[in-house]
Amino acid sequence: MSSSSFVTAALFLSLMVGGLNAQLSATFYSSTCSNVSSIIRGVVEQAAQSNVRITASLLRLHFHDCFVNGCDASLLLDNSDGIASEKDAPPNANTVVGYEVVDDIKTAVENVCPGIVSCADILAIAAEISVTLAGGRSWNVLLGRRDSRTANQDGTSALPSPFETLSEITKKFTDVGLDTTDLVALSGAHTFGRAQCRFFSGRLYNFDGAGNPDPTLNTTYLETLRQICPEGGNENTLTDLDLTTRNDFDKNYYTNLQNNHGLLQSDQELFSTSGAATIDIVNRFAASQSDFFDSFAQSMINMGNISPLTGTNGEIRTNCRRIN
């Protein structure tokens, strides 16, 4: 089966399985804002000229939105009366970025199609465009989500943590209806972007509580990371999630795991957890970039189907940072 046929078939399967998401459609804006994707692409391309990291950041925004109350743009809400912003929760504070670019996208879209396109759909489209700009494959983004009128700061505990074991992360994916293949495929988003030292420095010096590093870290890579993140140093220092092709969306994330070059504990556990079902999937994606791209496309569709607000639920925000 060709790659395009696979993604088309996967899209059809997603629509058949996700009955409650049947109102989402790749052609949702065809008669009301047909050029929405090109508008968003223009803004993202411009932002990427001055900030190469923005593509990874926009993909992460969609992920962090969908895992908390579904794909409803609740992440984008600022603090206000009755709303405690998810932006200030530990998984997001000072690490999730790109909000200003979303503001620019919303302004551009509103100028052409006022009151039509939701912030939740903007995140979904921007994520797909970001992947393609970094070298990944396009997919049909299902649209028709509406925006929440509230946030769930406490609910951010549903987000996978870089410090968690494979079993803990697997449960978080299962809780939102995603399976093991989705887990491994979506983790591949760490093929580009950066991470702060505080999210992995525990692996470098005192992983076991007895002063030893994480034994699953390649020793040469360990010394490289210790140079970047010295003990007692600046925990906000950034380093590449993928040490080989730092800004490219490709399969190298998985070959890194095979070589014990996974930066985060949650990454390396996909390959280094004895007997885990994830190992074969890592090996499959490491062997075939096409296989990874196909699976990633389907998993993004699956993630985008997590509890969307549709019909008359929610609203179409005019400003993504606040309710109407």
TrEMBL record:
Keywords: Calcium, Disulfide bond, Glycoprotein, Heme, Hydrogen peroxide, Iron, Metal-binding, Oxidoreductase, Peroxidase, Secreted, Signal. Disulfide bonds join 33-113, 66-71, 119-320, 197-229. Its main location: secreted. Substrate binds at residue 160. Heme b binds at residue 190. The record marks 60 as: Transition state stabilizer. It is found in: Secreted. Its cofactor is heme b; Ca(2+). Ca(2+) 1 binds at residues 65, 68, 70, 72, 74, 86. Belongs to the peroxidase family. Ascorbate peroxidase subfamily. Belongs to the peroxidase family. Classical plant (class III) peroxidase subfamily. This is Peroxidase.
